[in-house]
Design a protein that fits this description.
homodimer, 344 residues, alpha+beta, Phosphoribosyl-aminoimidazole Synthetase, Chain A, domain 2, four-stranded mixed sheet, 13 strands
Chain lengths: 344, 344
């Protein structure tokens, strides 16, 4: 939980204006090229000439998106920004300005909040994103609302645009994050320390694939693109639906699985399909015509980031997975429903 | 409170995806000129050539910013957008795209949510703002996070820029909203029905002064500008501080007070200073050199919106109010502190 501070070390004592002052004077606060940042009625930013403006908003709520007992302030600060950066990566955008809305219980410890902001701003600094505004308000539970504004001068990568015959590609490896969560909440024990650490880190500190997204868009090779937040199956389903109700044939041998995840798989404690539906991978999933294969391989090599071919787009709806035991149809429900899940 | 629905008419039954579908198909959903709206990883918008992009984020929390017992869903939907439009008005911006983040208890009634969205989108339609994205998540209490993106091709109106000798101006009338709140929560009774309705409406349905903000910025006459959310004294204090630690001499006879508010004043139940510190006026407060007086009068006449001269900026910090009984110094605390207020 957010450690409740005494009168001297919690937010109620620190105060809203002292907190905003801490933010505005933070050494990692990038404000270069920003005409007006924190402190006016709105921020003022000049986009590059001819650019399109890309905007995404994500909300994270205590007890729903994260458990404060198993998530450090630093991990949460990192992830709150990383998930938005991942959305922007999926458009091929360059992140520009970020806006942080915080609903905070007054008993929030000052040290916790500083650690959260330090991690958030360190990640922002890595990608040269400016914290350009936000709002800090009292709330009964911790709520984080992040709006990220980016730009692109190329045509952005959309979820629509895939065609039958296109290849389906994925960056990095899948399923690590959901295994990491199981390690964290105690459902998966007995791994080597190195494997457990690897999987936990993949859950806690996702790496948004911004460089890959931008390269793909600049080269014009991806016909459709999405980032994996709900799992490969659900997000591929979103992409195929937006591309006009298409389907996919995946090959199980082509799915990119890390060595630690493969060892868990081989222990029989999870199945391959669990790794495809666990979510929070924050890798890029995209489609491209067969003619683009060599260029995709070049981009992957240049970025030293593995990009796997998983299968192909087909005209008939539905996602199938072909493996040694034959072909199975995967269920493509729409992803996690925040409200209905309570009833089921 | 948000009326808790039965299993058939609450959000838990309706579901997140049905709600998003309702939003995406709403007849008031303006999407013209938007390359990509709701449904992709980010929205895509092409700003006007040479424009600066203005962005503001506001969060509203149940029990902190509004009381669901005395606020209808429609009033809340209106106000959630109106307060952001007011921030943009203070920059002289043109509203372009809005992003709505909602943290919702699963027991929220479907009818309540529809009424909220209808009002939000009707106001958006009035000002040609496109709902271009957002996020809907489960939460323990109602949390509304609105990010508004706008543009300006002129130099935006900032809080900094006032100089000693500048006149201080204010649109509309002040203090109506705080009196309306007192009527609503029962602290102010016995008014005529018409007066009570006028004051309540001024609290529930603030009119963002977008046209005035844009005209002032286009004419280049305002040296500094802010919208009044914390009350004339606190917001003038913000503006003077950002302009380099200046002060102001106000004349009590020049403060714009509506006829209903004047009748409450004359009844002796509030003092003039209460109307200057109550907050939520959402009028524009700006400074301008004496040479701009005629142009400001012309703009006010063109818009048929009263703009009052309240006094002048002086080089010495502090805000004084001169009236028939002499001159008093007004306390310029920084405005409402969300966290410290709990301790005091």
């Amino acid at each position: 939980m957010v450690a409740a501070g005494t009168r001297d070390d919690c937010l109620a004592d620190w105060g809203e204006f002292a907190f905003i002052d801490f933010l505005a004077r933070h050494p990692a606060l990038a404000q270069a090229d920003l005409e007006v940042g924190i402190g006016d009625d709105a921020s003022v930013w000049r986009p590059p000439a001819g650019a399109r403006v890309l905007t995404t908003l994500d909300m994270l709520v205590e007890g729903v998106h994260f458990d404060l007992a198993s998530t450090s302030a630093a991990d949460l600060g990192w992830k709150a920004l990383a998930v938005n950066l991942s959305d922007l990566a999926a458009m091929g955008g360059r992140p520009e300005c970020v806006y942080l809305g915080l609903g905070l219980p007054p008993a929030t410890a000052k040290a916790w909040l500083k650690e959260f902001i330090d991690a958030f701003l360190r990640l922002a600094e890595c990608y040269r994103v400016r914290l350009a505004g936000g709002d800090t308000v009292r709330a009964g539970e911790l709520v984080i609302s992040v709006t990220l504004v980016g730009s692109t001068t190329a045509a952005p990568g959309l979820r629509s645009g895939a065609s039958p015959g296109d290849g389906i590609y994925c960056s990095g490896t899948i399923g690590d994050s959901c295994l990491g969560l199981r390690v964290l909440d105690g459902r998966l024990a007995g791994l080597s320390e190195a494997d457990a650490e690897f999987l936990k880190k993949r859950h806690r500190r996702p790496n948004p694939r911004l460089a890959l997204g931008r390269k793909l868009v600049a080269a014009g090779v991806a016909s459709a693109m999405i980032d994996i937040s709900d799992g490969v199956v659900a997000d591929l389903g979103h992409l195929l639906k937006r591309s006009g109700g298409l389907g996919a044939e995946l090959e199980s041998g082509r799915l990119p699985i890390s060595a630690p995840a493969r060892r868990v798989l081989e222990s029989g404690r999870v199945e391959l399909v669990d790794l495809m539906t666990g979510g929070e991978d924050f890798e890029l999933l995209f489609t491209a015509p067969p003619s683009a294969a060599a260029e995709i391989a070049e981009i992957a090599a240049f970025l030293e980031l593995p990009v796997a071919w998983l299968g192909r787009v087909v005209g008939r709806a539905g996602i199938s997975l072909a493996g040694p035991a034959g072909k199975i149809e995967l269920k493509t429900k729409g992803g996690y429903d925040h409200f209905q899940s309570q009833n089921q």
